[in-house]
Every structure is written in C-alpha cells, then in structure tokens.
Amino acid sequence: MKKKLFIVAALMMALVLTAAGFAGCAPAAKPSTADADATPSTAATEAPAESNEPEQPADGNVFRIGVTQIADHPSLDVCRQGALDKLAELGVKEGENLKVDFQNAQNDVSVATTIAQQFAADKVDAILAIATPSAQAAYAATMGSIPVVFSAVSEPVAAELANADGSNIVGVTGTSDKLPVEATFELIKALTPDVKKVGILHNTSEVNSDIQLAEAREKAGAYGLEIVDVGITSTNEISSALDTLLPQVDAVMNLTDNMVVSALPLIVQKCNEAKIPLYG
Length: 280
Fold this sequence. Notes:
Rossmann fold; 5-stranded parallel β-sheet; single chain
C-alpha cells in the first residue's frame, strides 16, 4: 500500500507541476483530490513545498506504471513527457527505479479498453491515463483495485471519473484541462471583431466535447456569436467535415477534443487555405 501511495502522490505532484509549466497540456489545472484509502490528496493548484514531497518507501523497489494515451498529438505528448520528467525530478527515474509501459490507443476506444484490461491483469502499481476515453477505460478495468491518475480530462464529473459534487471516486484522481469557453470568445472578439459565426468540429462520442459544445452554444449569444457545428466519428471524416464547415463560418474554434486535435496540422492547413482564423 505504501508503495502505491507514494507513486500516486508523486504522479499527482508531477501532473500539477506539469500543468503549471506547459500551457499546451492544460489551460487551467483543476486537480480533484483522492480518497485516502486509494490515492493520496496531494494535488494542489500551486507547486507543493519541498517538505511536502512524498517519501519513497524504504524497500527501494522498482515502481511499475502503465501509461495509456488515447491518441498521438502534441498536447497529450506534453502531458505524458512532462509527468515523467517531473517524476524524475522527484527521484522516480525510468531505467532506475521506474518501469513504464506506454501504450497508445490511436484514437480507438476499443484498443484503450484492451490496454486498460492488460494493465489490470499485469497488476501495475498505478495507471497514468491521458485523455478522457483512456481514463474511463482505466477506471472501468480497475474499479479501485489499482490507482488511476488521469490527465487531460476536461469534464471529470460528466465522464464519471468524479462524483457529482466534484469529490473523487475511490481509486481515481487527476487534473482537468477544461476549456475556458468565455475567455476564448473574448479573444475572438478582441482579435477578429467582425466574426459572427464560429465553427466547431467535434467527436460525437466524446463526452467532454458534448459538454463543451453545449456550453459554447449557451454562451455564444452574449458575445454576438453563433455556433455552427459539424460532428465526426473518425479522423477520416475530418477533411470532408472541414469542407462542409469552413464555407459557413467566419472563424473556427477547437474544443479539447482528442480526435479533432489529433488532426490539427490538417485543420491548420485548411483554415489557412480558406483564410479562416483558428482559435484553440
């Protein structure tokens, strides 16, 4: 138990420090504290004092972490590498006292489920789950038997990774990267005041995208904006979805949608060709 408590405390500290240092990983870190029986409540929006750093177990065993990431794209890569870098600063170093099993689901939820189930079968000390689908799969596979620490989850409550009041579920903790919708609208109006219609691409099966889209629709009117959205179910649909969306809008706004952001180079290219500003 002490070994698991240490590695989860170290992971949470690493994620908080990473979120503070890398804007691409999380615009605003919002950690949810963990249950004392499964994951320690070490998360904070500010870096902990040195005296609060977790104390390594005396046995010096190698820690085993399963890292599951839903897709390849820079912001998720930063979350993963930043966490590992910060762990190393805390004395938990890959190749010395840390063994990392990194798996990427390549935007396939069924693969994320298989990865999580394998980590559970391997009885790793903890799982670092990057992005909502991977975190949901990790929790479903472990149900509190192995600590799950998540990153890049926009809506932990809606994803059922936290209780309705925001308190933690046993065995799960992490940091949120919720999109500041109103701040984005303010930026759009400040930089491109003539924009009236804002286009949003979204994965129709990703709960965090549903929540953010609903919020954008609700708040757009106060800024004189109208939301035009096109849903997708795979990355293969993004090109044609953009061809449909771009002629209808004055600007495009990205949500923290893993499927959409994984195709960011294509989105940038098409927006540039259409001379449409891209936000987010």
